[in-house]
Amino acid sequence: MVKGLIGRKVGMTQIFSENGTVIPVTVVQAGPCVVTYIRTKAKDGYNAIQLGYEEVPQRKLTKPQQGHLKPANVLVRHLREFTADDVSVHNVGDIVRVDMFARGQRVDVSGTTKGRGFAGVVRRHGFRGGPRTHGQSDRLRAPGSIGGGNSPGRVWKGQRMAGRMGGKRRTIQNLEVVDVLPDKNLLLIRGAVPGPRTGLLQIRKAVKG
User: Could you give phi then psi for residue 101, rounded to 5 degrees?
Assistant: First the structure.
């Protein structure tokens, strides 16, 4: 069985447990996904299931994309690969739904974080900045020294400096599935997940769960 699903972040809300505790949850529209390609060790060197998500009009896809999706008889915008215990149980064109997950199960969620644009060191890395008094006027949010003149005589690779912030792929591990709503294709996951509302997500069975 394939170990993951593609979805979109709907937003965050809160629900109440049976004993009245407030649980913050992220609502994820997960699937339905269609199996578009099956990779086998004999043919590709590894086993995996390629899933497609979000149907689109034919004019939105290139001819090579349409040709790739023709065996599955579907036109989808997003393709992602997931590992599987046994690829032989799947066929091209099969539908994978959110009911593959269960309440209480642990999952890993991957997404692209919100892009924050060009940011300084205070916002990007949490630097304290310079002194606010004693005659200085323009060092409040400055990074300070980035290296000695003689030793090392250069800026170390990886030095924390101002730059583009966010917009990176991140994975949050071991999140709990609080509830599954198969009729609406929704997952309620405890806590926050990467990315903005409507952001594309990959939900996998937890590797450490």
Answer: -100, 155
Reference 77, options 53, 98, 100; nearest CA is 53
> Strand, helix or coil at 60?
helix
Residue 89, C-beta contacts closer than 8 angstroms, at least 6 positions apart: 1
CA angle 77/79/82 to nearest 5° reads: 155
Q: Which residues partner with 202 through β-bridges?
A: 6, 110
Which residues of the chain have a pLDDT value below 70?
A: 209
Rounded distance, CA 75 to CA 77, Å?
A: 7
Which strand (E) or helix (H) includes residue 82?
strand 76-82
Q: Which two tokens stand for residue 82?
A: 């997931």
| Three-state helix/strand/coil letters over 97-143 | CHHHCCCCCEEEEEEECCCCEEECHHHHHCCCCCCCCCCCCCCCCCC
Predicted model pTM = 0.83
